Amino acid sequence: MPTLILRHFLAHLRLYFALLIIILLILLPTFPKVLPGEHLAQIKARDFITAHTRNTPTTYYEGRQGPTGFEYELMHLFAEHLGVSLNLNAKHHPESVLSAVSEQGDFGAAALPLKPATPGVHYTRPIIQMQPLVVYRRGLHGIQEPGDLTGLELGTLSEAGTSEALRELQQDYPALSWKESTELEVAELLAQVENGTLDAAVIFDHQFRLNRLFFPNVERGFLLGDPLSMVWAVPSGRGLGLLEAANQFLQDLDESGMLDHLVNRYFGHDDYLEYVGTRTFLAHLDTRLPPFVDLFQQAASETGFDWKLLAAVGYQESHWDEEAVSPTGVRGLMMLTHPTASEMGVNNRRDAAQSIDGGARYLRSLKDRLPESITGSDRLYMAMAAYNIGLGHLYDARKITEMRGGDPNLWRDVRESLPLLQHQAWHSQTRHGYARGGEPVIYVRNIRRYYEMLEYVERSRQQFFQLERSGNDTPSLLPFELVPPRNP
Q1: Quick one: 299 and 402 in the same domain?
Q2: What is the C-alpha to C-alpha distance for residues 291 and 352, in angstroms, rounded to an integer?
Q3: Within 10 A of 27 (CB to CB), how many other CB atoms are there?
Q4: Does one domain contain both 76 and 205?
Q5: Where in the sequence numbering do the catalytic residues fall?
Q6: Which residues pair with 107 in a beta bridge?
C-alpha cells in the first residue's frame, strides 16, 4: 500500500513539473530579453543615431563652414559608417552626458575620459590620449612643478578627468586644494585665469593649444600626471552590437591613417590665425601683392569697397597666397568655404581672380544683409566679423549685447560680447551656441591694421610720384617698398 501511494505521488509530481515546463515555454517568449544587436538594429530601423556631446571647440561647435569639431567629424563619419543620419544633443557637461547615455541615448562623445566600471555604460576603445596640463596667469613666477600649486587659487572642470590627476597629486601634497565646476567649459576656465579670478587651472594640453591665442595672459605650465584615454560611451543594458560597431569603426579609422589626419588637423598646431609682424607684411607687399592689385581694384569697383580694404582682408585670410588651405578646409586667396564658393559661383577656389571676386561679393552680401539700424563703419566691421564667424554667431553676439545693456548696432559693444560666445553661461542662451568669439575680434583688428598700413604706403607712394613729376632727384620706390615708421 505505501508503495502504491508513493507511485501515485511521483506520477503527480512528474505531471506537475511537465505542466510547469509547458507554462514556462509558453510564457518565456514574452519575458524581456536583450539580443546582442538589438540596440544597433533599432538605430538602423529608425534611420538616425543620437549623440550626446558638448558645445566646445575641441568637441563640437558651429564653425565658419557649419558644424565642426574633432569629435563631431568622428561622430559624422560613424553615422555614415552605419548608414544613418546624425542627431546631436549638445547641451551637456561630461557628467550629464553619461547619465543621458545610460538612461536614453545612443552614445556619448564629449572628450570623455576612460573610467572603468562606470555604472550604466560601456566604453569604446581609446580614441586619443589626453594629457592634463597646468596653465597659470602671466606674471606668476616659479610655477614649475607640482608643489608650486599649493596655496594657489586653482580650478578645473568636474568629471572631465583632470580632477583625477589633482586627486593623485593631493596624496603627496595634502595641503593642495582646488575648485571644480560642473557649469564652466574650458574657455571660461581660461578666462578666469586671464582676469585673475583664478591663479591657475588644469585642463588638457590639446584644449590649451586650441584656445591659447585668445588668452594672451595665460601661460603654459607643466604636464601633470599620466595621459588619459578619450573614449565614447554606449549604454550597457541594450546589447553589445553598437559597442562592437563603434570599436570596429575606430579601429578601421586608426589603421587607415584617417584618425591621425584629423588629430593633426585639429591639434597639430596652436591656431591658424596668427599675428603677423610689420616686417613680414611689408616684405609681402613687395613680393606677393603686385600680381593681385588689378584684381582687387576690379572687385572693388564692382562691389563699392576700397580695394585696399579687400587686399587687407585677403592678407588676413591667406597672406596673399592663392594656394593657401586652412586646417578647417577653407582655401584660396580669400579663403572661401565650399558652400560660400558655390553660393558665389566660384568653381575654382585656388584661382586668384575667382577667389577675389567671390570674396568681395560675399563680403558685400554680408554687409547688405545686416539690419538697417547698423550704419557707417560699424556696419563694415560687423560684416567683416561675419565673414570670419558667420552671420548666425554675429546675431547671437548682438543678442548678448542687448542682454548686457549695450547697443547691438555699435561694433565697440558687440566686440565686447563676441568672446562671451565661448562661455557656456552666455552661448547656452543663443540660437547657434558655442563659437570662438575671440577670433573675429582679432580678425577685424588685424584687417584694420593692414588697411591702415596699405593707406600709409599708398600715400607715401603718391608723394614720391609727385616729387618725380616736379623734377626732384629723389629716386622712385618700387611698388609698395617702404621703410616702416617706428610705431606703425
Answers
A1: yes
A2: 10
A3: 9
A4: no
A5: 317
A6: 51
